[in-house]
Structure formats: C-alpha cells, structure tokens
Amino acid sequence: MSLEGAAVSLAAAVISAVFAFLVFRQWISRHKAFQFSWSVGLAMFAVAAFTQFLAEAYGWSDGVYRVYYFVSAPLVAVLGVGSAFLVSRKLGRAFAAYTVVLAAAFAWVVFTAPVDAAKLLQPIPAGNGFPDSVRIWSPVFTIPGSLALIGIALLSYWRTRFVSNLGIAAGAIVAAGSGALATLGITWVLYLGELVGIALMFWGFLLSREPAKVPKPEGERVSAT
C-alpha cells in the first residue's frame, strides 16, 4: 500500500471521470459514434484508476484485481474504436465488432482464471497476478488500440495542424508506454504514466473545444476612429 500511489491513482480517476462525462455529454447532443466509444473507454479508464486507488489505500483483493485487469486491458482498444470511426464508419464498426467479441471472451477468462494471492502483495502487481494464459490477451487489445488512437491523432495533426491532436497523441503514447514498461517488470512508472497520459489527452480535448481564431479580412476590420 502507498499513499503516493493512492493519490496519483485517485487524481487519474477524477480527471478521466470528468473527461468521460464531458465526452458523453457531447454524444447526447450530437450522437456521434466516436463520442460514445471514447466516453465508454474513458469511463473504463476511470474505473481502472479507481481500483488502483482502492488497492493502494486498502490493499489488493481478488475481486478488485479482477475488475482492474478486465477494464484496463481493453480500454485502449475501445478508445481506438472511437478514433477508427473518425476515419470511416465501416472501419469503426469492424474494429468495434473485433473489440466486443474479444472483450466478451476476455471477461470469461479473467473471472474464471486463478489469481496468485502472493503476487497481489507486490507494490504494483500489474498483470503478474494472473497466469500467462490470461496475460497473453492484453496485446490483442493494446497493440491495435494504441496504433489506432495514436496513429489517427498524428494523422489528424498532419492534416489540420491542430495542436489538440498532438496532446491526445502524446497522452496516449505516455499511457501506453508506461503500460508496456509495466509488463516488462518496470511497474513503478505505471500509475504516474497513466496520470500524465490522461492529463495530456484531457488537455488536448479541452484545446479542441476552443473556437479557432480566424482573422477578419481587411475590409471587415472595425476602425478605431
């Protein structure tokens, strides 16, 4: 248990929950598929971060660990589905079907597999509590999800030069990178990377909501005299 880890995880949970709420509110008014997918993915991020807070404050339990692992592995793919819908509806639907089918099978695996209680005593167990037969599922979500989320954000920046897309890409890179390092045993970067990553993505989202400043033509400028 760690007070620092609990504070970092709670901050990430709060930011992602607010982020999810704002995107979901956009979906209610506009009903765009990418907004719905992003709001679901961000809500999953909030749940994952909150389970980390509970674990750091009170210790890992079997149930908390299973919920944590179930939502943390597919959430990147769900966010990637939202990005795919920005490219085309057909691509978004195909990626959504892929993610939903695998997530359903993954749920059965996670909630039926044995958990090594001794590994839950580690400071940050990440995926170490499950056998390799469960951990092998993570890349089928994280790799295509990260490629979609990061790649499409960078492509959007190249096309539009909107800095907001760089914020989303940078945040996704930081969060994905910390998760990859955690799978390699460098677990101390996980919580911090999640906080920095979601904060950068949130900053990019807020920046995208600002109206673009378009200079008026010379003939439309108001004279000061």
Structure description:
- This protein is mainly α.
- The chain has a single domain, classed as Rhopdopsin 7-helix transmembrane proteins (Up-down Bundle).
- Helices cover 75% and strands 0% of the residues.
- The chain contains nine helices and no strands.
- It is globular.
- The model is unreliable at 212-225 (pLDDT under 50).
Helices, strands, pairings?
Blueprint: H1 3-30, H2 33-58, H3 62-72, H4 75-87, H5 89-112, H6 132-135, H7 138-160, H8 163-183, H9 190-208
Main β-sheet: number of strands, strand sense, barrel status?
none
Inertia-based shape: globular
Topology order in helix (H) and strand (E) letters:
HHHHHHHHH
Average pLDDT reading:
89
Secondary structure class reads mainly alpha
Number of domains: 1
Question: Architecture, according to CATH?
Answer: Up-down Bundle
- How far apart are the termini? 67 Å
Report the strand count.
0
Radius of gyration computed on alpha carbons? 19 Å
Q: Which fold does the CATH topology refer to?
A: Rhopdopsin 7-helix transmembrane proteins
Question: How many helical elements?
Answer: 9
Uncertain residue ranges = 212-225
Helix content: over 70%
> What percent of residues are in strands?
under 5%
Reading off the top of the CATH hierarchy, the class is best stated as Mainly Alpha
